[in-house]
Specification:
Blueprint (H helix, E strand, L loop, with lengths): L8 E7 L19 H16 L6 E5 L2 H13 L9 E4 L7 H9 L6 E6 L3 H9 L12 E6 L13 E6 L1 H4 L1 H5 L6 H4 L4 H25 L4 H24 L5 H31 L5 H7 L1 H19 L3 H14 L2 H8 L5 H19 L6 H18 L7 H34 L6 H19 L22
Protein name: CHAD domain-containing protein
InterPro entries: CHAD_dom, CHAD_dom_sf, His_Pase_superF_clade-1, His_PPase_superfam
Length: 475
């Protein structure tokens, strides 16, 4: 946190959690939090602590929903000194931004102030201070504003910079998913190819909504879902290119590959650090992990990779890629490409992918390099993405694909974990403290390989009647 000598103040504006309207007899001041509001506290408290929202003085409205918000977060956080820095004030039970403005100008706090209150007052205050206003401040949300001033009395309109904007739906994927609309292509009547014209733009719109929470990095599931969408759209466009040969598809495929590569390092570290947390709970390894410095080192690598990803999606190149993809997926050119394919083409593509997968699976042996197992995993992913486009496929077939993907995904994760661990040992563990953990990972990876080798080939769904000459689908 910066002190006053640097001429910078930190202002955190937190809106109370979602409140209940179920009891009409209660005055507004008396309304409590509802169940969703309680969930928001669990999600937001650690995130707010992480950005420093509780490092300074905390002022809050004395309304019941605001008190319960502060008290609920206090109960969640392990910060003993916080209770002494919280002040509840009746004056802050206001819906006027001008009241908050006048109150803030009278503060004498050194550096940071956190204000827990109500809309529209908080949003009005934020937008009066910010050079670039924000649109909303949902319940449980927080705006962190940097103010280049020595004293709070010096605040002026439009002089603040937005440091962070946090919403429960950007911190927790579960909260995010609660309000997301379904894929219109899955709901519409018509052929699978025709419905792709609805599904692909929807996926791209969803990708855009995932950008901000994926960049923040509070919940790794955001990045995981972001990557799934990129791969799903890419798999569809690659299949269309193999079927149609239309060169208009080459540029969007290239853009999607570029964006997928930009996420790989961060996703690997997300998965590794989740495993690291589990190993820390194992008495056999916790001492070695802490003594070797691996825990801190990999958390720092993850933070660096997260910052790099956040910078990446803020670049002009990224925005150009996204706009170009949006334009293409909404274009008449794609509509024409989809329209040129008959209704059996997706099934033909699926059958070809399955045949390729089965040939790769049969060719595997104990002597096969790891890369052959990874290629099989990528092939299976393409099969599953294509299967998602055909609602007529049996549920048992989809379930089998999901189970296979889990098995191959476990092998991929284990391979990444082992590679990162061995590299760290070579760099920073000359004493070999982590050798026993590396040996366990190696054994688990070998067991995953053996499990893959025991898999049967995929039974293709019942054949469809083909029209014309089927093309070979490239991989």
């Amino acid at each position: 946190m910066t002190d006053s000598k640097t001429s910078m103040k930190h202002l955190f504006l937190i809106r109370h959690g979602k409140s209940s309207w179920s009891d009409a007899s209660l005055e507004d001041w008396e309304r409590p939090l509802n169940k969703r509001g309680q969930r928001q506290l669990t999600v937001m408290a650690p995130a707010l602590q992480g950005i420093g929202a509780f490092d300074g003085a905390v002022y809050a409205s004395n309304a019941l929903r605001t008190r319960k918000t502060v008290e609920g977060m206090l109960a969640i956080l392990d910060e003993p000194s916080l209770a002494q820095r919280i002040t509840f004030k009746s004056r802050l039970y206001t819906f006027s931004g001008d009241v908050l403005w006048k109150w803030l100008r009278k503060r004498r706090d050194k550096s940071a102030i956190t204000l827990v209150g109500h809309n529209p007052a908080l949003l009005e205050l934020a937008n009066r201070l910010l050079r670039h206003p924000i649109g909303t401040l949902p319940t449980g949300g927080c705006v962190h504003i940097l103010l280049p001033i020595q004293h709070w009395r010096d605040i002026e309109p439009e002089t603040g910079a937005l440091a962070t904007c946090l919403k429960p739906a950007w911190v927790s994927y579960t909260e995010f998913q609660r309000k997301q609309s379904g894929d219109p292509g899955k709901k519409a009547n018509g052929t699978s190819l025709r419905n792709l014209g609805l599904s692909l733009p929807h996926l791209m719109d969803r990708l855009e909504t995932l950008e901000s929470p994926a960049a923040l990095g509070f919940d790794p599931e955001f990045l995981h879902q972001y990557r799934i969408i990129i791969r799903k759209v890419r798999a569809v466009l690659e299949t269309l290119f193999a079927l149609s040969g239309d060169k208009a598809l080459k540029a969007p495929i290239k853009r999607l590959r570029r964006q997928a590569r930009a996420t790989s390092a961060l996703r690997d570290l997300d998965v590794f650090n989740e495993a690291l947390a589990d190993w820390l709970g194992d008495a056999e390894f916790q001492d070695a992990l802490q003594a070797s410095g691996a825990v801190g080192a990999f958390r720092e690598r993850q933070r660096a990779a997260q910052a790099a990803f956040a910078r990446h999606i803020d670049t002009r190149e990224y925005r150009d890629d996204r706009e170009a993809l949006q334009d293409f997926l909404h274009s008449r050119r794609l509509e024409a490409i989809l329209g040129s394919q008959d209704k059996h083409r997706i099934r033909e593509a699926l059958d070809a992918r399955i045949a390729d997968h089965n040939a790769r699976l049969v060719a595997l042996s104990d002597l096969s390099p790891d890369e052959d197992f990874h290629r099989l995993r990528k092939c299976l992913k393409r099969i599953r993405y294509l299967a998602d486009l055909d609602r007529a496929l049996p549920a048992a077939f989809r379930k089998d694909l999901k189970q296979r993907q889990t098995i191959l995904g476990n092998f991929q994760d284990r391979q990444v974990q082992l590679s990162l661990m061995l590299a760290y040992q070579q760099e920073a563990d000359p004493e070999g403290r982590l050798s026993s953990l590396a040996e366990r990972l190696s054994g688990q990876k070998q067991a995953d390989r053996q499990r893959i080798l025991t898999l049967d080939v995929i039974d293709a769904p019942e054949p469809v009647t083909r029209t014309g000459r089927a093309r070979t689908i490239g991989v």
